[in-house]
């Protein structure tokens, strides 16, 4: 047995006990039961869809019309535009608020904490409505502003937690080398924290993507608003079900694409030599020290 394999066995046994024959049979049985239940739920849903005639040609032919396709594509484009603005601004606002919360100046830290706690506690829909109705802002800026304030405050806590998770010795070593606080944050703490923060950041961006659907409440012509407009003009029973069956996979696909992008970025970081640990050669006799002689 190689040393690597032995290390892997010791590591796995240290985390949890390896399942025995009975435990493996029990886990296998749990898997079969869970799969059967999922299949039963899917079969029941399909039965309801067929029973209400949701797959008839009359209910799907309208989606072949060019006008409906253009309306859906325009709504999808507006959704992606709002998400792009909100995600970039949320990341920027989160970085600013996290920097404020990590500041050594007490007034700055208190102000940043107040902003984070207030916008995290405020429902995003209330903020969107307030900006749209009270401040009389156009639908797209109102939607983006509400999403930015909420998701930016959440991301601020993600950034702060990620920075604080880096070992204290890294910070102290950087200061010992004469680096300023900005340099320590930019070149030492942030690169090491980004791996730990990346899954949570992507999860919050997925939340922002789904929350763009709130735009239809303030008449913003996004994807869900387009689907609602189409369903309200169809003249058969339960028109929303075919529309939902088209819109839902698109939302799910976009969220899965974000998750795949996060996995791809994480793999590139692991392969990037700049993020790998540098092996320091042991000192040999006669090595010259700075300011000294061999």
In sequence order, what are the helices and strands, one letter per element?
HHHHHHHHHHH
Overall pLDDT: 82
The helix tally amounts to 11
Query: Which residues sit in consecutive blocks of at least 5 with pLDDT less than 50?
Result: 1-15, 275-294
Helical proportion, percent range: over 70%
The count of DSSP E runs of length 2 or more, i.e. the number of strands, is 0
Multimerization state: single chain
Reported for the largest beta sheet, the result is: none
Strand content: under 5%
> How far apart lie the N and C ends?
44 Å
Output the structural class.
mainly alpha
Described by the principal axes of the CA atoms, the overall outline is flat
The Rg value, from CA coordinates, equals 27 Å
What features would you describe in this structure?
- With 294 residues, the protein is mainly α.
- It has eleven helices and no strands.
- The chain has helices spanning 3-15, 21-51, 57-60, 66-101, 106-121, 124-134, 139-164, 168-176, 181-211, 223-232, 240-271.
- The longest helix has 36 residues, at 66-101.
- The two termini are 44 Å apart.
- The model is unreliable at 1-15 and 275-294 (pLDDT under 50).
Task: Give a brief rundown of this model.
The chain is mainly α and 294 residues long.
């Amino acid at each position: 047995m190689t040393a690597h394999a032995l290390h892997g066995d010791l590591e796995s046994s240290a985390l949890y006990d390896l399942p025995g024959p009975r435990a493996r049979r029990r886990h296998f049985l749990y898997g079969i039961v869970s799969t059967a239940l999922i299949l039963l739920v899917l079969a029941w849903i399909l039965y309801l869809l067929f029973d209400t005639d949701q797959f008839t040609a009359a209910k799907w032919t309208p989606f072949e019309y060019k006008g409906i396709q253009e309306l859906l594509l325009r709504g999808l484009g507006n959704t992606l535009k709002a998400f792009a603005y909100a995600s970039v601004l949320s990341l920027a606002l989160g970085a600013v608020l996290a920097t404020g919360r990590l500041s050594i100046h007490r007034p700055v830290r208190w102000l940043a904490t107040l902003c984070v706690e207030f916008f995290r506690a405020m429902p995003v829909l209330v903020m969107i409505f307030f900006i749209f109705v009270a401040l009389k802002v156009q639908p797209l800026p109102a939607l983006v502003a509400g999403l930015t304030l909420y998701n930016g405050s959440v991301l601020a806590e993600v950034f702060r937690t990620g920075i604080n998770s880096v070992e204290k010795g890294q910070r102290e070593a950087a200061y010992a080398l004469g680096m300023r606080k900005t340099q320590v944050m930019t070149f030492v703490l942030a690169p090491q924290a980004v791996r730990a923060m990346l899954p949570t950041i992507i999860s919050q961006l997925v939340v922002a993507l789904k929350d763009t659907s709130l735009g239809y409440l303030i008449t913003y012509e996004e994807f869900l608003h387009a689907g609602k407009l189409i369903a309200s003009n169809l003249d058969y029973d339960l028109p929303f079900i075919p529309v939902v069956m088209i819109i839902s996979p698109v939302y799910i696909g976009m969220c899965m694409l974000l998750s795949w992008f996060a996995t791809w970025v994480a793999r590139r970081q692991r392969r990037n030599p700049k993020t790998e640990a540098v092996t320091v050669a042991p000192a040999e006799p006669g090595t010259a020290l700075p300011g000294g002689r061999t």
